[in-house]
What we know:
The protein is α+β, with helices and mostly antiparallel strands and 473 residues long.
Amino acid sequence: MAALHASDSGATSPSNSSDSDTESSTTNYGHVDDEPYHLSYRKGELTWGSYKLKDEDIITVTGIKGSNVGHTILSLVPTDAESQKPFELRTTNATLLPEAFLDEFQFRGLPPHLDPSINLQILISTLSGTGLSPAFYDDILHPLLKNIGLADSNYNVVRTKSAESVMEFARSTLLVGANEGKNQTVLMLSGDGGMVDTINGLLESGNKSSTYIPPVLSQLPLGTGNALFHSLHKPSKIPSIYIQGLRTLLHGSPKPLPIFQAKFSPGARSVTNEGQNATPLSNDTVYGAVVASYGLHATLVADSDTTEYRKHGDKRFGLVAKDLLFPEDGTMPHAYQAQVTLTKSGKQDALDRKEHGYILASLVSNLEKTFTISPASKPLDGQLRVVNFGALDGQQTMEIMKAAYADGKHPEIEGVGYDAVDSLRIDFLEKGESWKWRRCCIDGLIVGVEEGGWIEVKMVAKGAEAVHVVSDA
């Protein structure tokens, strides 16, 4: 699309009365390539000639250096669901934009978490989701930062090389700076996994100094489900999560991120590389900010975490769910053997069954944009809630999942438990050396538990959070 260059002459004056006056207050007269055009802004659209820009596609509007009336509109070109690259930056240069449009979108200055005086890092998680993070930085974020006044010298770019890169970065860079009392901001081009790896890299050693300043994380959602991102934002009609993430980066504010601690029995291992690698947990503990699960959810995440399945994005979950819920031999789905105990208001409550289909503790409302697993959860409320149901057939389980996609109606179904809890404990009763049916999911990290082992999930105390997260909530 051609860039817009409107002239400095012919602007109409704002007015405050009548329909015609309302029209004139949102319409300016300019030129595009020496041709006269009306620049009109009404009903969420900026139009000139046959061109139009919708509000939902606009990131921000910045001033053009050396001009009092010139601006650059930064927007994303709408793409369809089948597009190989679901984002494309559009830059439109204009003068004499309608005042109402500028009031809505003009960039007013860098927020404190992007101030050039702080230590700013950009973490590009090359393995997240379907591998879009590098292209998003090169095509979208880098030119946006330049337009808002951040030169390359104002930040450091870190590109991950392996599944361990994020934790290594958190340990070697962020933790050192936080303990020295430095203000740090990280733009996370990643999914939930990058966020949880950062949190664990900061907390696993237990070495927080008295001068520790929590790093500020701003997530640009480039994972598969992006549960944390969807749950930390107000409900929005903006179809693009990328625009929502970029607007939050520019206009949101940092808030403490509630986190939970998942303590495991000795011998538990983190399972990576499609089940080929098993690594002991530091202090038998993993920290999370999204979900701790056992049963269908954990098995689904574990079995779909392969190079081949990841090519399908969030569709990978549905592909694996079919095999788990409707086994080829016609048998029932696996019944997970465990004793589950919920602690509510200081009192322990053991579930009266030993066979389960689904046990999930959540700090967030949504595991995907439209999958509302915990409808009572509010952004950053810090309340752990548990969803559970027993061993059911595939069709019954699917009905519950469909209800979760229908604005979180599943707690209304008989047999589905949904409780606010202080803690969750699972004592595993599955026999055998293999941990296939003793795998847990902590924010996407898979942990295998030894026979006779257990997991206990509870909140980290308020004020002891490892990071702050930029949110629009």
